[in-house]
Structures are given as C-alpha cells and as structure tokens.
Design brief:
The structure holds three protein chains of three kinds.
Chain A (H helix, E strand, L loop, with lengths): L21 H28 L3 H6 L11 H9 L2 H32 L5 H13 L4 H10 L6 H6 L5 H11 L5 H8 L4 H12 L1 H17 L2 H6 L8 H4 L11 H31 L6
Chain B lengths: L13 H27 L18 H8 L1 H36 L6 H26 L6 H7 L12 H30 L2 H9 L4 H12 L1 H17 L2 H6 L9 H9 L13 H34 L1
Chain C lengths: L1 H20 L31 E8 L2 H17 L3 E8 L4 H10 L5 E4 L17 H7 L17 H8 E2 L2 E2 L2 E2 L2 E3 L2 E5 H6 L8 H13 L3 E3 L7 H6 L1 H7 L3 H10 L7 H17 L12 H6 L3 E6 L3 H8 L5 E5 L12 E5 L2 E4 L6 H12 L1 H11 L13 H6 L6 E3 L1 H4 L26 H18 L2
Helix pairs in contact in C: 2-15, 11-18
C-alpha cells in the first residue's frame, strides 16, 4: 500500500527463523522517539497542573505529592468557562462552516478555470498569504461598518483564510475533469454538482482546512481583545487572562486552565480525524 | 474559458455568483485593510481618532531601512529571518514527509502517533510557548534534569542569543510539523494503490518506488507544503514573543514589526502609536515574503507542469 | 477582467480611506445583539444624573489590582444603584492598543493610563511623543483640572504624572520603586550576613553565600528587563540626578563610555556574572518571585510590585527590602528610584461624565484609596495614606528620597541602535558582552548613531 512497506520481495534466502520486518522495526523506533518528544512536554503540562505553586517552585519536575484537582476547579470557576466555552464553540462552528462553504465555491471554479481571470484571482489569494497584518485599518473598517463589539462582526473576521483556498484549489486539481463532463451529461447543474459530488470527493481536504481554520479561531487572543468588549461575548481565550500576571503567574492554575481550554478542541479533532480517515479509505478519491 | 459543461446563458453565471460571497469577504475584510496599510506607510498616522495625519512621503521607509544603527539592526533581523526560514523550511518539510510516509503504512497504532504529532497544532502558539517554558525551565525542569544526568547545564531559552534562537527553531518545527505531515498524508492517500502494486510486481525497490511513483505524484502537495513552510517561517513572530520576548540578537522581522507596532520593544511603558512606521516596516516584510514566495511559486509551478503536464 | 479588478481594488481603497478618515463621525457601536442577562448596555445618548448608566472601565491585568477593583465596583454599585460598572481586563501588553481602539470606538469611559511621565523635552530632536501625550493632543482625554477629587493627591504627583500644558488629565494611583533588593531573612541570619549598605558589603555578602553553596541573587533573566530593572539602583547610585543624565546624554555632555559610566559597567558585570545565580537567565519574569520564595536564593533585586507575588508563592516566607547599594559611599545608596505607575483618565467624549466623576471621586476617597494602596502595594500618592504592608514598611524610611528613574525621562532618538541603553542585561549570560569597555563603546556608538541621524 505505501512506499516504505512496499519493500523489495525478500531475498529468497530460506532462513528457519521468522523473518523480521526491519522496515517495521525502524518505523516503530522513529515513531516512539518522536512520540516522546511530542508527549513529554505535554505530560509536563499535566504534571504542573496537578501541583501547588510552592511545590512547582521547589521541584518543577517531580511528580505531585497529592493530586491537586483543585487547580482545575479553580480554573473552571474563575475564568467563567461554561459561558465563554459556549461562545467560542458558536464562533468556531459558524465561522468554519460559512468559511468552508464560501471557500469551496471560490476554489472549485478557480481550479477548473470556470471563471474568467481564474489565474488572477488565484494570484490574489496567493498574495494574500503574504499580506501584512493590518490590525488597526481592519479595526477602523469594522467600526465604520458598525460591526464592532458584535458577534456577527467577529465571525466575519474569520471568513477569510487564503491558505485554505490554496489547499482546496490544489486538491480539486487532482480530481479528473471527465467527472464534470459526465455529471453535466447526466443533467447535473453547477450548484448541485459542487454540493453533491465535488464536496464529498474533496472531503479529506475540507477536513484538513476545517481543522486548521477552527484551530485558528479557537486560539485567537488579540482579535477578541480588540473587537469584543462586552463580557457576554467573550470567547474562552479571553477568560484565560485571569491566570496571567505580569509580575507573577500561578503556573499550576494556568496549566490547568490551558488543559480545560484545549480539551474540547482535541476532542473535535479526534472526531474529525476519524472522518478524514473514513473519507480516505472509502476510496472515493481514486481516479 | 474552455469546456464549461454546466449550461450557457444565465446558467453560465452560476460559478461567478457562487464565487462572489467568499471573494467579496476576502476583498473587503482582508485585502482592503492591507491596502490601507500600504497607504498608512506614507504617513505619520497614529491610528488614533482625531490625531492629525500628515503625508510624509518615504520618510518611514528611510527610517526603517537607512537611519542610523537602528536600520543596521534591522538588516541583522532580516538575515536572521532568512536563516530561520531556511532551516525551519528544510527540516520541517523533510520531517513532515518522512513522518507522513511512516504513518501512512499499515501499522498498528499509527492513528495514535498521528494524533500526537498533530497535537501542538491544536494548542496554538501561546500554549506551545507555555509548554516549552515549563519543559525547559532551567531550575529543575525535565530537560534540565535530563542533561544534568550527563553533568551538563544550560539556560535553554535564556541562553546566548544563538542558542535561544535555535530553540525557537526547534519549537517552531515541533509545533508545525504536524500540519506538514497531515497535508502530505492527504496527498499520499490520493495516489492510487494500483500504481504501487504494479511497481511491486515489476520488482522495484522501495527507493525507486518513492522516486518514480510517490514523489512525482506528490507534486501538488509538495508545492502547498513548501509554500506554507516558507511563508509561515518568514512571518513567524508569536513563538518569539512567548518564548523569548524582545531580546537583542534574536529578533526576526515579523516579531520586530509586531513589537514596534505595539510598542513592546523594551521594558519601557512609554511606547508610541506609530502606525505609519509600523506599516512601512510591514510593507517591507511583505515585499520580501512576496518576492521569495512568488519565486518559489513560479519555480514550483514550472516543475509541476513538467511532471504532471 | 484584470482592469475590472483594478477598478474594484481602487474603489475599495477609497472606501477604506474614507472610513478611516471619517472615523469620528462613524456611527456609535451597535448595541449587542444577544441579551446580556443582567446589565443593560450603554445608551449612546448622554445619561443625566439619576438615569441608568453603564460605566465602562478598562484596566490592565494585575491580579491584586483586579481583585481590589472587583470589590470596589460592588461597593460603588450599591452606593449608586443606577450605575453599573462594566470593567474589562486586558493584558498589560495590549493595553495601549485596546486604549487606542476603544477610545476610537467611544467604547470606554474610564481608562487605566500607563507611563504618564515626563513629556518629550525641548532638547530631544525629532522624537515621537509618548502615547498619553498623543491621546491628549488628539483631544481624547478629559480635562480634570477642576474636579475636587484631584485635590486628594499630592501636588507633586499631579504635576509630575497627570499634568500636561497646565491641565490635569490623569490622577496617578501610586508609585513603585524598582531599585531595591529583596533579601531572605533566614539565610542572612543563618550565615551571619549583615544587610549591605555599600557596594563592597554587597560583594562580600555574595561571597559568603557562594562559599556556603547558596545562590546569591536571582531574577527573571529570560525576559531581560528584570535584569536591567534590577540594576537601575546601580545606575541611580552613580547618577543620582537622572533627569540631568538624560539631558546630558542627548546633548553629549555625558557619554556611556566615559569614566563614570565605565565604573557602572564594571559593577554591572559583577552583578550579572558573579552575583546572579547560574540559570537565572532561563527564569521567566513571572516565575522569579516564586524562585526567590523557594528559599534557595539569598537576594532578589526587583520592584516593590513583586511583594504580593512572593507572599502568594510562600506565605510564611520572611524577607526584607533595601535600596540597591550601588555606590561605595553609603550616603549615595539611600535613594529609591522608581516610577509612577498607573493612573485613571476619562474619555473626553464620554456620555457618562457624571458617573465617571462619581467613580473617580469615590475611588479617591481617602479610606478607599488607603484600601487600594494596601491591596496593590503601591507607594501612595495621597498625602494622608500610608502603605501598611510589609513592603510599605520596608520602603517607608526611604520615601523622602524617592526619585523618578531614568526610563521615565528617557526617549531614545530615532535611529539609535538596540544597545543604546544602560542595561546590565547586555552582559553574559543574559546578553553577549563580556568586556565592560567594549560594551560601553558599543552602547555609546549605538546612541551616537541616533543622535547624529537627527542633527
């Protein structure tokens, strides 16, 4: 199936011992080494979250003497998590869904050349990848449009993501053009073709873009600080600020808060990942 | 405008109408403010309502590029940006590809590993920074204890600028390798299994399968990944902020611009609202990224056409 | 198509420019769409006394301060039931940007204003004025000159940290000192070390600790600024008149590589390389108080603001606080250098002027102010108030000698290099320099380059 597994048929040396698949062994070795590099720091976060501050300062690495789940309770109440978490979920879900729909309808005709100046538009999107952050001008624009301090305006800020469009365009290019022709011959209209045939086919790319886009919204800190001043609209990142101080942070509580904050996103990713995998193994993409 | 199969006349408008919402959002919310930034760069704008704005011509550019030692410091930052970009792009790209190939095999538990490698991406820069500050805490943090076993000591992120800089590279790669890997996996999955089977029947070695089947067919995602890595590393600033702060000898352009735009260049609290100057600096970075990015894009496209046709 | 694209883009530019230009006449922010549950949102029209008003207050994140303000706001609201206080907290790093956006959006009434200090001086050529000056010049801050509560504060404070062009725009809430050293009482007792009053004594004390395998000093070296802020006392001891120092640097009368300065650099080298514990350069600024409170380090140079964090990390910990003995002459070491910390200012076009004035008047009430000073640990700026906490008692003997420090006066010339500051953090291991003379020359050259560029 894959390259590394597609080893040359083993040499015909008939040995009595069971053949060891060295590719497999090497693969696992690499996987485990990297898993340590990736998991180690994450476990340190968990370890810190279960300690008291003096305990942490005395010995940062040692395992906690007693598990301090209070840190989590503390984080949950202090940061007004339930409410902010709901807000974040609403922002993330609505912005991601609207973005994805609009992005597919931008990416597909560009990839196929179904609109005039497709190349120019694509170039504009590629240029957008390089564009400077324009925080203050963007703020002035949103203020002028009356979209300041409004959840609608806030969501609108996330309806653009040039990277996603570029990824989708590249992916659509791998779909055979004959597909369009065949669908059209069957009397399928453009809108229906894109929604019922193209979108399912490019599901892996959509899932990738969805995850990337959602992560960006979930973790955004500076935009809500500027655009949402009404506490009822705060996303979860805004609640995190309670734990930070310029002159002394309570690292254990901060770590606990961070864990609570990211947990939902991790779950969403796990669910979506299965989605990606199933979308892929269904073989829908095969030419 | 060849081969549009979905009707003529009014039906021909469908792709245009459906493209419009996304494109308009992009023009208004993203492109518009960026163009305004370009306009700001020729003024002494403060970004404050009611403050007078004067046209100052190229003065902001002169200050950023040619004025005193500060401009020479900016060139140092530019050089660091390029170094950062080079190492991060090459290493992250290669690692991402290798890991994608490994994870894409039929092995038990690959899903688990894949998820772990992607985890940092989910966390975002602020938390990545927190995690590594904890892990690299020099007074008895895990890494300090580990190297302590070998009788070594290090200040890690607080070490000499070159060392601190290298750590940021490391964390940047650690944090973003998952995306590169994921995009490669998506690409690998599009390669028809039959091709591999055919190659195996021909008795091709794994290397030649990779060289002749996988690599060429990965071209579109290779391009996406290279471009993303280039741009991501050229514009990087968040990890510098959360891991190092504004330290001499470590700043890259992206961070320099952020810090100056937000008045965080030193411990001083009397920062100033210098939107015009910050805009000029970000236009300079924009042009740099644009030149590198477009060059890469053109080269990659040419290669893609050569291979895929 | 590309022509059309061009037209579209230029139309867009126009639109953005128009919007940017007429920001003043922009419509008031839309009322929040979702129902807030409790608080009614601000009516855009002026709210005369007696009518319901929501007062929007912006502060930066400082845990003890925020805690105090929450209590204070509740008390205030029960006294004035028709006023609702809506206080938002932002990271200190974002305060200036959020002040900028919220004042522009008419979305704030009372703002936390930082670094209101000396304005750009006439001898400084071609410098950008500090933020607060820009805000006042743009007419965004209210003239508070005639408000009765202004009289509650020291005249000197109002003059130094609230007055611009003879009008009062801010009341300053307190001073902090940054040129002191926290010391660990137990360790000093254990090794029989006397609290140092001269540089030589400080060096000797460190030697005693080191020979007993105790780290002498710690600080949040990873962030850089705690190292140089910690050494401001060293600069202060050698240059007691910091305003004159700044003017001298601008006019060329003083140089960072002259004999006097070289002494300073040499001491800084000792401070960073012999006194600081190894590993200090990896400690984050917000972790340093905890490190000191762990009891393993004898001293911790830093500002009065750390006291709360030290106590939070280890409540039973016993510490003292002394001015940094940077000079060999004990008389030069009796000064505490510091700065005016945050203040309150009011948005010029607030629709809730009446409520805002009541708020500040209530805050400035001596009893409330005293409670505030105790909670936050500022050195009070009201004549009647005293700081009753441990840190307050520790600094009390030196308050008569309080001076505003270098960084409150200093505005760097444009084009000056990144080393144009008297910062101990340039030395290894925090920076890259090892030789005081070499560093001194680099600092002066970086400064000179800026001065020359603006001739």
């Amino acid at each position: 199936m894959s390259t590394a597994a597609a080893t040359r048929p083993a040499t015909k040396k008939a040995s009595a011992t069971r053949r060891i698949d060295w590719t497999k062994v090497a693969s696992y070795l690499v996987l485990i080494v990297f898993a340590i590099i990736y998991l180690g720091p994450l476990l340190m976060l968990l370890n810190t979250a279960l300690k008291t501050l003096p305990e942490f300062m005395k010995n940062a690495t040692a395992l906690p003497t007693t598990l301090r789940f209070e840190n989590f309770a503390d984080a949950w109440t202090k940061a007004n998590f339930p409410r902010y978490l709901t807000n974040t979920m609403i922002y993330t879900a609505s912005a991601t869904i609207i973005y994805l729909i609009t992005a597919v309808f931008v990416a597909f005709p560009i990839a196929r050349g179904y609109v005039r100046g497709a190349g120019a538009i694509l170039t504009l999107y590629v240029i957008a990848l390089f564009l400077p952050v324009a925080l203050i001008p963007q703020f002035q624009l949103m203020l002028g449009l009356g979209l300041y301090n409004s959840p609608v305006g806030y969501v609108m800020l996330f309806l653009i993501n040039p990277i996603g469009v570029v990824i989708l365009v590249n992916y659509v290019k791998t779909l055979p053009r004959e597909l369009d022709e065949a669908a059209a011959l069957d009397g399928c209209g453009y809108l229906r073709f894109v929604t019922t045939i193209v979108i399912p086919l490019i599901r892996p790319a959509i899932a990738t873009v969805a995850v990337l886009h959602a992560i960006g919204i979930w973790n955004e800190l500076i935009l809500p600080t500027i655009y949402l001043t009404n506490k009822d609209f705060y996303p979860i990142t805004r609640g995190m600020i309670v734990f930070q101080g310029v002159y002394g942070s309570n690292w254990p509580t901060l770590a606990a808060a961070v864990l609570i904050m990211t947990l939902p996103m991790v779950i969403i990713f796990l669910v979506l990942q299965r989605q990606i995998v199933s979308g892929l193994t269904s073989g829908a993409v095969k030419g | 405008m060849v081969n549009y199969h979905f009707g003529r006349g009014r039906a021909r408008l469908a792709p245009y109408l459906l493209l419009l919402p996304g494109f308009l959002f992009y023009l208004v919310i993203s492109l518009g403010p960026s163009i305004a930034t370009a306009a700001y760069s020729f003024t002494d704008a403060t970004g404050i309502k009611g403050a007078p704005v004067h046209f100052v011509g190229l003065e902001n550019y002169r200050e950023f590029l040619f004025m005193g030692q500060a401009s020479r410091d900016n060139y140092d930052a530019l050089l660091r940006t390029l170094i950062f970009c080079f190492f991060v792009t090459t290493i992250q790209f290669t690692l991402g590809l290798v890991m994608a190939l490994i994870v894409n095999q039929k092995l038990k538990g690959v899903n688990f590993f894949r998820t772990i490698y992607f985890m940092p991406v989910i966390l975002g820069a602020v938390i990545q920074g927190l995690i590594w500050s904890l892990f690299l805490y020099p007074m008895g943090g895990p890494m300090a204890q580990l190297i302590g076993l070998f009788g070594l000591e290090s200040e890690f992120l607080g070490g000499q600028p070159a060392q601190a800089f290298a750590w940021v590279m490391f964390v940047q790669i650690w944090a973003n390798m998952g995306i590169t890997m994921m995009i490669f996996i998506a690409g690998l999955q599009t390669i028809p299994t039959e091709l591999y089977e055919a190659a195996r029947i021909d008795g091709a070695s794994s290397w030649s399968v990779f060289r002749n089947v996988t690599w060429p067919l990965l071209t579109p995602v290779t391009n996406t990944n290279l471009l993303l890595n280039l741009i991501g590393s050229l514009q990087a600033w968040q990890l510098f902020l959360v891991l190092l702060g504004y330290r001499n000898g470590t700043q890259v352009l992206g961070y320099l611009i952020f810090a100056q735009g937000f008045g965080q260049t030193s411990g001083s609290v009397t920062s100033s609202f210098r939107q015009g100057y910050a805009a000029a600096a970000s236009i300079v970075l924009f042009l740099l990224v644009l030149v590198i990015g477009l060059t890469a894009q053109t080269l990659l496209k040419r290669r893609e056409e050569r291979i895929i046709g | 198509m590309s022509k059309k694209l061009l037209t579209l883009i230029s139309a867009l530019v126009l639109l953005v420019m128009v919007l940017a230009a007429c920001g003043g006449s922009a419509p008031a922010p839309v009322a929040p769409a979702a129902s807030s549950g409790e608080a009614a949102t601000t009516a855009p029209a002026a709210a005369p006394a007696g009518e319901k008003a929501t007062l929007k207050v912006l502060v930066h994140q400082n845990p003890p301060m925020v805690e105090f303000m929450n209590t204070f706001n509740e008390k205030f609201q029960s006294k004035y039931p028709n006023i609702t206080v809506d206080m938002s907290v932002v990271n200190a790093n974002d305060l200036s940007t959020v002040t900028q956006t919220r004042l522009t959006a008419n979305d704030v009434d009372v703002v936390d204003i930082f670094g209101f200090a000396n304005a750009a001086q006439p001898y400084m050529k071609n410098v950008t004025p500090p933020n607060w000056q820009t805000l006042i010049d743009a007419g965004l801050l209210m003239d508070l000159t005639d408000q009765p509560f202004v009289k509650n504060y020291d005249e000197a404070t109002i003059k130094d940290a609230g007055t611009y062009n003879d009008k009062v725009y801010a009341i300053n809430l307190g001073r902090v000192s940054y040129s002191g050293i926290y010391y660990n009482q137990d360790l000093f007792d254990k090794y029989g070390v006397k609290v140092p009053t001269t540089w030589a004594e400080l060096v000797a004390a460190c030697e005693t600790f080191r020979s007993n395998d105790v780290s002498c000093m710690t600080a949040g070296g990873k962030d850089g600024w705690p190292i140089f802020v910690g050494a401001y006392g060293l600069t202060g001891a050698l240059y007691p008149d910091q305003a004159a120092l700044v003017e001298g640097l601008w006019t060329g009368a003083t140089k960072w590589n002259d004999d006097q300065a070289l002494k300073m650099w040499e001491k800084m080298k000792v401070y960073t390389q012999d006194m600081m514990e190894s590993g200090a350069s990896g400690i984050a600024g917000d972790a340093a108080p905890g490190r000191f409170a762990s009891g393993e380090v004898a001293m911790f140079p830093g500002g009065t603001w750390y006291a709360a964090a030290i106590d939070a990390a280890q409540p039973a910990f016993k510490w003292g606080y002394i001015p940094f003995p940077g000079s060999d002459n004990a008389d030069d070491n009796k000064y505490l250098f510091g700065k005016y910390d945050q203040g309150w200012a009011v948005a010029a076009n607030t629709p809730n002027k009446d409520a805002a004035m009541k708020y500040l008047a209530e805050f400035s009430d001596p009893a409330n102010y005293q409670a505030f000073a105790n909670a936050v640990g500022f050195i009070p700026t009201q004549p009647g108030a005293t700081l009753d906490t441990a840190i307050g008692k520790a600094v009390a003997p030196f308050l008569a000698n309080f001076r505003v420090g270098f960084e409150q006066y200093w505005v760097a010339p444009k084009g000056a290099g990144q080393y144009a500051n008297p910062w101990a953090s340039y030395f290894k291991p925090f920076g890259t320099f090892d030789d005081p003379k070499e560093l001194a020359d680099k600092v002066q050259a970086d400064l000179q380059s800026g001065l020359d560029a603006n001739k």
